[in-house]
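ligand=pyridoxal-5'-phosphate
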Amino acid sequence: MMKELGYYNGQWGPLETMTVPMNDRAGYFGDGIYEAALAHNGVIFALDDHLRRLWRSADKLRIELRWTQDEMRDILYDMLSKVEPGDTLVYWQVTRGTALRNHAFPNGVPANLWITLKPITLGDPRHRLRLITVEDTRFLHCDIKTLNLIPNVMAAQLAAEAGCDESVFHRGEVVTECAHSNISILKDGRFITHPTDNYILPGITRARLLDACAEVGIPTEERTFTLAELMDADEVIVSSTTKGGVLAGEIDGQAVGGRAEAVFARLQAAYTARYERETAK
Ligand code: PLP
């Protein structure tokens, strides 16, 4: 049983011993797409959703996936069986292939599959996050889950340097998402979240929270909201695979939310119940 596993095109081993070819296009161009999911009780949560999103990203970037979704699922589960049980972060990426550096696609080169598995300790879902705001200077294809994450990296570093958990991106007055999460608000009993257009990643947790809202009768609005609405929200909800849906308590040093804890508690309970049900042994 390994603790941290790395996989590359059929080869696997302890993550720190794995190497990849220098000409993998991930290194030159970040020419690839990825997914990250959570395994609990040996079950990869929402895996079908993650596979569907990976196929969508591949389609948008014209990366040819040489596996069926079933084959990819089998490889992921095969690798998962080789690591120690417990909550695991299942990360995988597909790159356009291996070839001498040249911007245009190489001919007849198969895509490469990378997988890393590592244990993860989930955060306390009651812990309120501290956020900062950062101008969203990313490109206009944020719906594609590509490896090109430099603005997200820079924003995450600013949050870390500020002693905070996440950065909230905004384009002018409009809040888009966070460096590695989606962001939504509760206002007057309604759950408001940016529509899934090209400005945000269509988060799987975000979608699950919308489902949970329907389940517990919280009305939803998929529309943009402003920084002013964010600061004045009854609650601010940050969501991602590893966090689930959690509340923020502070943005740029100002207290936010704290006015709809009971509504959020219903939402979080519904989300968690689905998570536990779908990852039951
Ligand atoms: N937005 C960005 C930019 C992300 O990188 C992520 C995930 O890491 C999310 C949103 C949340 O997506 P998901 O809920 O599918 O993890």
